[in-house]
Amino acid sequence: MRNGREAEASRLSLVDALSREERRVLLAELDAVLACRIRDIKLTGRLREIYRAASWRQRSRTIRSWLIWVSVFSVCTCVLDFLQDPKMFWTSITMRAVFIPAIYGVLIWVWSRPRSGFLEGITLPLAIAVMMLVAQSLGSAGGGPIHERYLTGGLFATSTAIVVFPMRFGWCFAATILDLGLYLGFSLTNPMVETRVPLTLTMFFTFVIGCLVPARQVMNLVLEHAFLLSLRNRLQAEELAAVNAQLAILADTDGLTGLANRRAVGSRLTADWTAQAAVKGAVGIVLIDVDHFKRFNDSLGHAAGDACLIAVAEAIRTTLPEGALAGRYGGEEFIAIVPDARPRSLVTLAERLRGAIADLRMPHPGLGEGRHVSVSIGVAIAPAEGPSSCTDALVQIADSALYDAKAAGRNRVVAAWSARGPEAAPADAAGARICAA
């Protein structure tokens, strides 16, 4: 399975290297091409490049297979040449057992890795020329009717290459002309055959082999069409997945601040509670509220209020440690979820958050000259014991601590266990108490 995925990735490496916008452009090109009839499909530019790279493995396998099996068959038919005429034996060994395997071995090497379009295309005429040259050499060695038989056999063998080799029309047409031209030229060297015979046979074979070229092109078009459909399906699936991923992010993101929204906060809190329950850890909550935010809005307007919330959100985001989540809990209220928390480190973090926002030194005209935006923070923590629904009680405890911070004069941090007395300390105490709080 892994090798299959790696092969697929290497086949479409040109597509994988494209940006999302480039893939959209490519998808539009595919739609335009596939809107045509199959017989009118014409791949140009980037699509031709992508198809050649993607289809190379299959094309290479097909062509190399033909070259290998023809080479093996050629060596085996040395026996038939000897039975035809013993005096052909050494010519047969030289041409069939040495010349063809050597030249076809070079062509197999050419197809061992992707090459230029010209180098790949020229292999078809070369394969045909070699086969017809061998037929001419053996036919001349045998002489008489053997010459004609071998040329006809060579023409038959090379016509299979025209069908089998998945080449573009230009190369197939050139290979067909070369094939028929060599057949006619070599046939005319046989002194025992009247000129009209090779001419007549060449005309006949022109019609026969000429039918193979359009057949090959139909096969090419079908393969190209199937590839284009497959590529379009892949690009559409990737675009859909990207859109869905973006929608999922948007569904969990506050549109103003870019922090997690209340829905995402709830999901994350439940997930962290479950994860900490498995390792007997604790979950900490930090609730942050911008002090006198209504006065800020009334003094400077909602646009300035939005800018204030964005700045506060960024300060929270950059101050939180890795693994913690910052979210907008509603209006001017923010929340931070800190898994695997400890009371002292949680209070320290809350003080850092309060200080980071104070360091913004945003003027607060609603509080008078020289006053700046500040926040009040409530902190709560509990061992992750009991059902995940206990998280609601934990948030309520943090909210009560936040209320105490506001009541105590704002711009301060209050921990729930210090506000409610020693009996509320949750760090090493029974966390089940929060469900009843």
Query: What's the arrangement of strands in the largest beta sheet?
Result: 2-3-1-4-5
Radius of gyration (CA) equals: 40 Å
Strand content: 5-15%
Structural class: alpha+beta
Low-confidence stretches: 1-9, 421-432
Euclidean distance between termini CA atoms: 53 Å
What is the H/E order?
Answer: HHHHHHHHHHHHEHHEEHEHEH
Average pLDDT, all residues:
88
What is the number of strand segments? 5
Q: What characterizes the major β-sheet?
A: 5 strands, mixed
Helix content range of the residues, please? 55-70%
Q: How many individual helices? A: 17
Give the overall form. rod-shaped
Layout of helices and strands, plus pairs?
Layout: H1 2-11, H2 13-16, H3 20-34, H4 45-76, H5 78-84, H6 89-110, H7 117-142, H8 145-164, H9 169-187, H10 196-210, H11 212-251, H12 262-278, E1 282-290, H13 293-300, H14 302-319, E2 325-330, E3 333-339, H15 343-358, E4 375-383, H16 390-407, E5 413-415, H17 416-419
Parallel strand pairs: 4-5
Antiparallel strand pairs: 1-3, 1-4, 2-3
Report on the structure:
Strand 4, helix 16 and strand 5 form a beta-alpha-beta unit. Helix 7 packs parallel to helix 9. The N terminus is likely disordered. This protein is an alpha+beta fold and 437 residues long. The two termini are 53 Å apart. The protein contains 17 helices and 5 strands.
